[in-house]
């Protein structure tokens, strides 16, 4: 696998190729010559193409690419980050050895040697090609080629980047991540598991981001499965007060918006606190410090975390979200009296209650409605990686993949970073 050969020759793609190689050089060179490898990666990104639900602004005439496969909305890891490798207290310090008489300059760090770095890059390529992820990508490429399908260029160089950053992770811990790549590169060549295909409430044709082996799923999970639900409920009064403080700010009131590609114009708006796992530039977090801190305790996924409002006599149409690596938590903040606001997930229908959480799987078809004539429904909405079924390292690697995907699409001119 050769890194440069997978990029088109336009300027934006070449710029990303350079960036990708720079990452490899940074990981290897700093690690070998006294620096810090495995530095923290961006907290998350959204899914685009296959990473749908993208709401970045697209150029009017984007470069035509194959629809990008799995991950339709971003993925982010709340407050998590890649552990730093210790190196003298975290900072590179110059030698403080005193000079003796007749001595020249003190000994300095080893100089950069291109041949040595090239050798490290080559060794990394060889290691990545034989890794579970590298083999999965190559097998999927061969399968896609045999069927005449195009391969999204993004997946060509990711095995080498992951190998450089996560070389310490045992191969057996990468098996399900490799399965994700196998499906991402060639969805038709890797059938979904039977529990998805046979469940009429989980539209398997809409699965765009898939990790195998996560176990049997149910529409609503017991809220005790994740600590987040208990913490939110314990802090309900504070969250309600902070929501009220946000509403008093005129600038914040203008931030409510529809954030998906679906037609949510009929009364469904969101005040986004986290977008693609990232904080929002210039958002007044000082008005909601506790809510913010609580949201950062979980690995936020690539969609949104924030306050959702639904007007009286409106609802979200039936749909599914197609990413089996995410869960959604919603806590009632302001709910109409008399169980007028409900959500159906799969065969089950539940009603929101103020100060109580619901935890559900959006790969099941779901819809909502607010039957009240005059009261809006407000919930605190959090999309996060499935900490019940996925390991910490799997979530961390997926976070890194989403982050790199975001940078790749920026280089390709498919999205523009910026405010919502």
Topology, pairings included?
Layout: H1 11-32, E1 44-46, E2 74-76, H2 114-129, H3 132-146, H4 154-165, H5 175-185, H6 194-197, H7 227-234, H8 236-247, H9 250-253, E3 268-275, E4 278-279, H10 289-295, E5 300-310, E6 326-334, E7 341-345, E8 348-351, E9 357-360, E10 366-370, E11 377-385, H11 392-412
Give the tags.
420 residues, 11 helices, alpha+beta, three-stranded antiparallel beta sheet
Commentary on this structure:
With 420 residues, the chain is α+β, with helices and mostly antiparallel strands. 31% of the residues lie in helices and 15% in strands. The protein is built from eleven helices and eleven strands. The protein has helices at 11-32, 114-129, 132-146, 154-165, 175-185, 194-197, 227-234, 236-247, 250-253, 289-295, 392-412; strands at residues 44-46, 74-76, 268-275, 278-279, 300-310, 326-334, 341-345, 348-351, 357-360, 366-370, 377-385. Strands 1, 2, 3, 4, 5, 6, 9 and 11 form an eight-stranded antiparallel sheet that branches. A three-stranded antiparallel sheet has the order 8-7-10, with no helix packed on it. β7 (341-345) and β8 (348-351) form a beta hairpin. α3 runs parallel beside α5. The longest helix has 22 residues, at 11-32. The chain is globular and about 70 Å long. The two termini are 38 Å apart. Residues 1-11 and 27-107 have low confidence and may be disordered.
